[in-house]
UniProtKB/TrEMBL annotation:
Gene Ontology MF annotations: oxidoreductase activity
Listed PANTHER family: DEHYDROGENASE/REDUCTASE SDR FAMILY MEMBER 7B, DEHYDROGENASE_REDUCTASE SDR FAMILY MEMBER 7B
Domain of life: Bacteria
Pfam hit, one: adh_short
Native organism: Nocardiopsis lambiniae
Enzyme Commission number(s): 1.1.-.-
UniProt keywords, alphabetically: Oxidoreductase
Protein name, per record: SDR family oxidoreductase
InterPro entries with a match to the protein in the record: KR_dom, NAD(P)-bd_dom_sf, Sc_DH/Rdtase_CS, SDR_fam
Ranges where the Ketoreductase domain occurs: 7-175
KW Oxidoreductase (keyword) present: yes
SUPFAM superfamilies xrefs: NAD(P)-binding Rossmann-fold domains
Stated family: Belongs to the short-chain dehydrogenases/reductases (SDR) family.
Length: 268
């Protein structure tokens, strides 16, 4: 395996939260790091050693330009995304489509663009930053749950395609994270919605869990482990008592697990 001082990493959504923490860890490990932001000039707390590139994951031309600017990428961390909530019945179609362009299609397209170089150099790492909600779905988060389940599905299938070329693919699923994401989540709830009470109950519990969640730096350490493992596992989960809840998921019927998740968020 090549020396990390000669490896290049590209981390999407590196201006804050998990992406920023991952970029900082990779710099400390000796990688050349590109971080992306929709507006690099507006990054208020840039990480020393990170070169910021413009990237709008909903725009094909922007994705292509970003991949071209980064050049030979050895490690891709698909982290950028949007958190969205609302009753499925009331989610606007354009909002749903935007979420999938950002959380799924943009990440997949960027992956497509860096894979040829990884394959030719016979080394690469592609890390999808997902969510434990993909494994433990929650009411009123259907669009977000589905987008994170989708990127995990892409990653799981891709592993077998590219492993003969020295490329490892993994998904990191964080639980509740204290990154201020509650303040940035897009929400859709109609005035007078019949779902109002349940939605507000769920949201209050969700926000409380995130306020007491693990820091972004803890997730970043897990991402770094996935990057540097000789044979990356398909899934790394961190936070929200991940070892225990995944063990229960293997032992209990799916309906029981869904009930437990709902009750943890005040739903019956």
């Amino acid at each position: 395996m090549q020396n990390t001082t000669r490896r290049t990493a590209l981390v999407t959504g590196a201006s804050s939260g998990i992406g920023r923490a991952v970029a900082a860890d990779l710099v400390r490990r000796g990688y050349r790091v590109y971080g992306t932001s929709r507006r690099p000039e507006a990054v208020t707390e840039p990480v020393a050693g990170v070169e910021y590139l413009a990237l709008d994951l909903t725009d094909e031309a922007s994705i292509v330009a970003c991949a071209r600017a980064a050049g030979e990428v050895d490690v891709l961390v698909n982290n950028a995304g949007e958190s969205q909530s609302g009753p499925l019945e009331e989610l606007p179609v354009d909002a749903l489509e935007r979420l999938f362009r950002l959380n799924v299609f943009g990440a997949v397209r960027l992956t497509q663009l860096v894979l040829p170089g990884m394959r030719e150099r016979r080394y690469g790492r592609v890390i999808m930053v997902g969510s434990m909600l993909a494994s433990f779905p929650l009411a009123h988060r259907s669009s977000y749950v589905a987008s994170k389940a989708a990127i995990k599905g892409f990653a799981n299938a891709l592993r077998r395609e590219v492993s003969p070329y020295g490329i490892g693919v993994a998904t990191v699923e964080p639980g509740s994270i204290n990154t201020g994401i509650s303040e940035r989540r897009t929400q859709y709830l109609r005035d007078g919605s019949p779902y109002t009470d349940d939605y507000r109950t769920m949201l209050a519990a969700l926000n409380a869990n995130e306020a007491s969640g693990i820091p972004a730096e803890t997730v970043a350490r897990t991402v770094l482990r996935a990057v540097e493992d000789v044979r990356p596992r398909p899934l790394y989960a961190v936070g929200s008592n991940a070892p225990l809840v995944f063990a229960l998921r293997r032992l209990l019927p799916r309906s029981v697990i869904l009930d437990i998740v709902a009750r943890r968020h005040g739903l019956r």
